[in-house]
Amino acid sequence: MITHNFKKKFGQNFLQDKNIIKKIAAQANTGKDDLIIEIGPGAGALTEELVEKSKVLAYEIDLELKDQLEEKFKDKNVAFIFDDFLNRNIKEDLKNFQYDKLYFVANLPYYITTPIINKIISEKIDVKQMIIMVQKEVGERFSATYGSKDYSSITIFLNYYYDIKKEFLVNRNSFYPRPNVDSVILSLTKKEKKYDVKNEEVFFKLIKDSFVQKRKTLRNNLKSYDFTKVEEILLKNNLPFDVRAENIPIEVFVEISNSL
Ligand code: SAM
């Protein structure tokens, strides 16, 4: 058993339920030659399962865990980097490894869920699949479909790159210390075929602008745009021109952006 002073500032809620830990590891369909990046191994509960399947590279910010983790995994195929994941050059770190496919599996520190995913996307790290635990409400937003109140710009941004699925819920009682929120396991699988976007910069700006004030209509949010072009696409897709962004499928946003 690892002894530890839990640090709230690092989002430290360690999973205690062995069955759930095994279930998370089982979601990652990895082989011996694959590499799994884990962010925040904590006491190594999930790491223990992952290392039975594949090679593991784990980033942990809390130096207090260093000696215990290194001791616990001394004969195992795990490399630790004790540093802030957000400050690392991941591509440089990966040069030290030979592997077939790359995966991410993590019970994420919730205070930096979005920055972590943004980093993986913006640095173009070629990840086949992520299995991540996030706060339940965040999971609803990431996996929402249009027409739902949770559908937002981050939904579209992530769904542009990944097929996102809610796998299962994890109750707050499964952690120590107990957090104030429940959690959900998500799988994000790299899309086989990406959307046919002509100009990503235009597309992402359109998405950001469309959702700038969620309760407003698209027309109101896109005041600086040539709305006749937008209207044409809405009409073609049987959408009213007082539609809100939350009711517009990604495919229609793609069409609008390609027409601008
Ligand atoms: N994997 C463990 C488990 O499931 O029990 C711990 C998960 S805990 C929610 C999050 C972990 O991420 C903690 O160990 C914390 O110290 C670590 N962490 C927080 N911020 C980090 C960062 N910026 N870079 C790397 N690790 C971080």
Task: Give me the secondary-structure topology.
Elements (H helix, E strand, L loop, with lengths): L13 E2 L2 H10 L7 E5 L5 H6 L4 E5 L6 H7 L5 E4 L8 H5 L7 E6 L5 H10 L6 E7 H7 L10 H9 E9 L4 E2 L6 E8 L9 H11 L7 H4 L5 H10 L13 H10 L1
Helix pairs in contact: 8-11, 10-11
Bound molecules: S-adenosylmethionine.
The site of S-adenosylmethionine has 22 residues, from strand 1 and helix 2.
In short:
This protein is α/β, with parallel strands linked by helices and 260 residues long.
Can you put this structure into words, describing what you see?
Strand 5, helix 5 and strand 6 (129-135) form a beta-alpha-beta unit. The relative contact order is 0.12. The longest helix is centred in the C-terminal third of the chain and has 11 residues, at 200-210. It is elongated and about 65 Å long. The strands form two sheets. It has a seven-stranded mixed β-sheet with strand order 4-3-2-5-6-9-7. The protein has a two-stranded antiparallel ribbon with strand order 1-8. It is α/β, with parallel strands linked by helices. The chain has eleven helices and nine strands. The structure holds S-adenosylmethionine (SAM).
